[in-house]
Amino acid sequence: MNGADTAWVLVCAGLVLFMTPGLALFYGGMVPVRNVLTMMMQNIIPLGVITVTWVLVGYTLAFSNQGNSIVGEFDAFALIGVDTPQFHTVTTGVTIPALAFVAYQMMFAIITPALLTGATAGRLRFAGWTVFLVAFSILVYPQVARWLWHPKGWLTQLGAQDWAGGIVVHASAGAAAIAVLLVVGRRRGWPRLKTSPNNLPLMLVGAGILWFGWFGFNAGDGLQANGIAAQALVNTHVAGGAAMLTWLLVERLTSGHSTLVGAVSGAVAGLATITPCAGYVGTGAALLIGLIAGCVCCFAVGLKRVLHYDDALDVIAVHFVGGVTGSFLLGFFADSSINPVSEDGVFTGGGGALLWHQTVAIVCVVLFSFVVSWIAAAVISKTIGLREPGPEQDSLDLVQQGQSGYSLSGVTTRPSTSGRGAGEGREAAVQPGGPRLHVVSAIVNTERIDGLRDAMLMAGARSLELTETTVYTGRIHSQVFRSEVRQLDFEDRLRVSAAVDDEHEEAVVAVLRRFGAEPGSIHRLELSPDGGS
Questions:
Q1: 111-125: per-residue pLDDT in tens?
Q2: CB atoms inside a 10 Å sphere around CB 93
Q3: What is the pTM of this model?
Q4: Closest CA to 11 of 193, 185, 215, 272
Q5: Is residue 25 helix, strand or coil?
Q6: Considering only CA atoms, which of 210, 189, 203, 198 is closest in space to residue 31?
Q7: Which of 20, 258, 324, 479 matches a 20 to 30 Å C-alpha distance to 147?
Q8: Residue 138 near residue 59, CB atoms below 8 Å
């Protein structure tokens, strides 16, 4: 057993595992605020479901020592026979523990179907999605992994190559996403629906975790701590950075803005595109592949408006197109001087044989994943249901989890020094026989929250409520999301409501005006002595 290789594979397994919660943060930050928990749950649940299916049947179907070139047998069911032999042979004279290989491959099986949830965001029922995960992890992924990553696999024997999952992971997940989209349909109101991301900083954190984890995703696939692993790691980083720059350039030329969402999308596109090539090409080729990826995937985002499919977070444009593009480009850039186990591509003197093998592999895997995923999704849809009904799509967190992702508003203040708090005023407001009270409310646009509170309490307000609201202003401003310009005429404001008596009403209104209450937004509502309106 090689201790360094074993340690490296185990570290890479942890890195790939870390990508799944990173994906949850990445997708979670880009969905509407009322659907963030649902999206994260859809990404996290594969950690439970596919861990079990992989241990029971997934591993043996994919990497059984028995079986044929299409599907494995059950000689390693529940990993019972995986310790015989005890080691997994990497190359002649080099072995690692079999369970290290099992764990590393498990993490790929987990994240693959999680990728497609970005396409179906805002529509999936949790129970139906869970059943689909079981079906995909047994019927689709193990077979594709065997075809390309097992020495007996028919695509391996044909001569197709896939270093870390451009076909096995990204193309199969993208094909499954297309199939599920055909079954669940579009979101309610799409394409008129214009939702905004709830937390772009959260998206950036998730993207950073994905980029970090991708080093284990790509550099660990040789199962050795050697020069090829270092080359794969460098290629991964170079392609991600290059794709980020080309995406931003295209975004700038087409929409006039270079955005954070564009930078992150470009990086992920480059990482997905270099995945099938990482251990087979040199650094210069990785740079070119990244530049191509950023351009191709950015333009692919517009396909959903041409073909009218509702890919909410552009999984098809980034992961599917990226994985397919990288697998195809491998036929041009593969270099046996970088990795002796690789065939040479068109540009390195190998002719078109590898390019043809790559094309066959892409077509076969995409068709297989699409057909089986469509059948599974259709059966689930007709039985337990896969799509949430229209009205429920607006608040999936409350419907499916009974809670919201953000319990605290963005309004923060320091404790008052006025000697009086809102609780004291509220008690006074509901005392029968007390002075007649009114509610005075107004829309303000101020950051001086502490000063507003203290001034209103000093002016005689009995209680205060401050809420965030969105108001129509008539002033048009633009937002850009993945090169799509959205024209908005609503803006964020604060609504202040205060309970006051007749004596202090004029002073409270004066305070509101001093703090920028918008004309026409000041209203007065009577309160009955028992606190009702």
A1: 999 999 999 999 999
A2: 7
A3: 0.82
A4: 215
A5: helix
A6: 198
A7: 20
A8: no
